Amino acid sequence: MYFQENSMTATETLKHTALHSLHTDLEGKMVPFHGWELPVQFSSIMKEHNAVRTAAGLFDVSHMGQVFIEGPGALTLLQKINSNDISRLKDGRSMYSHMLNEAGGVVDDVIVSRIEEGRYLVVVNAATRENDVAWIRRHGEGLDLEIEDRSESLAMIALQGPQAAESMKALCLEAVPLKRFGAMKLELFGRTVWITRTGYTGEDGFEIICPHELATRVWQTLSARGASFGLLPCGLGARDTLRLEAGYLLYGSDVDEDHTPFEAGYGWVVKLKKETFIGKSALEKQVSEGIQRRLTPIQLVERGVLRPDAVVSCEGEVLGTLSSATFSPTLKAGIGVGYFNRPDLKSGTPVSVLLHGREFPAEVADSPFYKRS
């Protein structure tokens, strides 16, 4: 199993989420991650991964950012800065999208929820939050709207797994009927919270966004309900193996400002029929000329663990390096993705991976590696 911790300087002070003391009480192994101290695991990455695939798991994702945009100009702004068509959102619905730069590179991948007409919630990545907020404010200048970054005052807990809905019954019956990519605002324990039904694991799940003072109560309520069927607290390690199996991108590794949605295999989030959005011209040109590289999944033929930055070759020609890689607990095999200079590679094509000075046989795989039945 492999998880790459983020480096930090000796003088850097790590931020703590509202659940930090609970994590230490549970003896979570804490690591630095984009300026935060977060649990990489509690029991083991393998156990936590399997719990999410078979029962349920709880993740503290409070390091992610929550940006609220409201007003008559909110939709205009969101349409401008997103590749997806935000105008298609109805009240109580969410959408995955990419915010792009003028070259078509990905500024961040985000979840946009329409709470009600003229009011939206944008969930952004921890590593890009400050840049994202500045980007949003810059392009919102002159529009009739308000932008509020509430990331410092809100916690975010992800409940994931086939028993997620059953666990949610103990916390909020109103949220159980939410459809996939649904969103709602409601009162819980006397405070305003937001609940979405998206996920980053390939399983069913919910996200509870709440004030810091509710975080421990929310976590403990869900944990108590799930104890009878195997719910486990989960860390960043299992989150990484689960998302890679399910074909989800990790910003900064698999996608960034130098790679476009088409190169990442996420062309479905690009709606070129929209009148205009930042990066549209560059993407139209890329479609016309064809992409020169593509994020490609591979799987080891022999049992083993793949590593990020491992060199991948085909018939003696170097294709590229892996951006994300791990051992898949579900497939019992080494898996990874990387940008290769042959975008036409078909599933099953033999390749080799250089690990520890030795070439290991692998093959191009289907994406995603795992899909919920």
Describe the overall structure:
With 373 residues, this protein is α+β, with helices and mostly antiparallel strands. The chain folds into three domains: 137 residues, Gyrase A, domain 2; 85 residues, Alpha-Beta Plaits (2-Layer Sandwich), CATH 3.30.70; 82 residues, Beta Barrel (Elongation Factor Tu (Ef-tu), domain 3), CATH 2.40.30. Helices cover 20% and strands 33% of the residues. The protein has a six-stranded mixed β-sheet with strand order 10-11-12-9-3-13, with helices on both faces. Strands 14-17-16-15-18-19 form a six-stranded antiparallel barrel. Strands 5-6-7-4-8 form a five-stranded antiparallel β-sheet, with helices on one face. Helix 2 packs across helix 7. It is globular. The two termini are 25 Å apart.
Sum this structure up briefly.
The protein is an alpha+beta fold and 373 residues long. The protein has helices at residues 20-25, 45-54, 74-81, 129-140, 164-168, 212-226, 236-245, 280-289; strands spanning 29-33, 36-41, 57-60, 65-70, 93-100, 106-116, 119-124, 146-149, 154-160, 183-188, 191-196, 205-211, 232-234, 294-300, 311-314, 317-328, 333-340, 350-355, 358-364.
Give the SSE map:
Blueprint: H1 20-25, E1 29-33, E2 36-41, H2 45-54, E3 57-60, E4 65-70, H3 74-81, E5 93-100, E6 106-116, E7 119-124, H4 129-140, E8 146-149, E9 154-160, H5 164-168, E10 183-188, E11 191-196, E12 205-211, H6 212-226, E13 232-234, H7 236-245, H8 280-289, E14 294-300, E15 311-314, E16 317-328, E17 333-340, E18 350-355, E19 358-364
Parallel strand pairs: 3-13
Antiparallel strand pairs: 1-2, 3-9, 4-7, 4-8, 5-6, 6-7, 9-12, 10-11, 11-12, 14-17, 14-19, 15-16, 15-18, 16-17, 18-19
